[in-house]
Amino acid sequence: MAYSIETVRVKDSPMEVFLFAPAGAGPNPGIVLAQHIPVGHTGVENDTVTLATAERYAENGYAVAVPFIFHWWPKAAEMQQKRDEFRDDWTELDLKAAFDLLAKQPGVDAKRIAIVGHCWGGRVAWLGAGTDPRYAACAVFYGGRVKLAMGPGTPPAIELAPKFRCPVIGFFGNEDTNPAPADVDDYDAALTRAGVKHSFHSYDGAGHAFQSFNNPERYRPQASEDAWQKVLAFLYKNLR
């Protein structure tokens, strides 16, 4: 599936946003899709899992925007540097810019936009839902580090749960260590305390990145497809 690339400026830093359009004139719901950090930190164009994920959502009728949230560093910079220097305050601005760009695309209904993310992007999806009340739904796939603060003066992302204004669905592997099942329990408890409608799904025999079809050691086809069906049903219910 073809996509277009637009560049927006965030605090004077150019950020590429990859845009996928569904068939039909709309009005269509939309998804802001947050990236993995492995490979993806060098550019969305290199992130085969995220690109394939965006394509599948578009094939199911969603307009998709994938912002390159690692634009603050050179693409060739080491992944560890980006991990260490990652800032939630910057990322909040990235997500708002991506939302605004997606919302103004022809045929997109700005009131029906979700945020979805895998791995590093799972945490980013949580951050987006906790900092922008415009989202109509949020899906978190095995997002770790939610209990950590990232960047100066920012709270741990888990503390944003009371600011969620949309339902949440989560997918996790019971053999994962980041987030471990105990972390997932803490996510669940935070959303429950905040009165956020949510449902979590955990898979035995699956660890981190179980939807990464390009990684034979981690990919779990049955769990991956079950999660796909569940997230598509969730998005249909909340965005359609």
Task: Describe the fold and architecture.
The protein is of the alpha/beta class and 240 residues long. It has a single domain, classed as Alpha/Beta hydrolase fold, catalytic domain (Rossmann fold), CATH 3.40.50.1820. Helices cover 33% and strands 23% of the residues. The protein has 6 helices and 8 strands. An 8-stranded mixed β-sheet has the order 1-2-4-3-5-6-7-8, with helices on both faces. Helix 3 crosses helix 4. The longest helix is centred in the C-terminal third of the chain and has 19 residues. It is globular and about 40 Å long. The protein starts with a strand and ends with a helix. The model has no long low-confidence stretch (mean pLDDT 97).
Salient structural properties:
Rossmann fold, alpha/beta, 240 residues, 23% strand, eight-stranded mixed β-sheet
> What fraction of the residues are assigned to beta strands by DSSP?
15-25%
Shape: globular
The end-to-end span amounts to 23 Å
What is the highest CATH level, the class? Answer: Alpha Beta
- Low-pLDDT ranges: none
Q: Could you please say which CATH topology applies here?
A: Rossmann fold
Strand order of the largest sheet: 1-2-4-3-5-6-7-8
Could you say which structural class the secondary elements and strand pairing correspond to? alpha/beta
Biggest sheet architecture: 8 strands, mixed
Overall pLDDT metric: 97
The helix/strand series, from N terminus to C terminus, equals: EEEHEHHEHEEHEH
- Kindly state the number of beta strands: 8
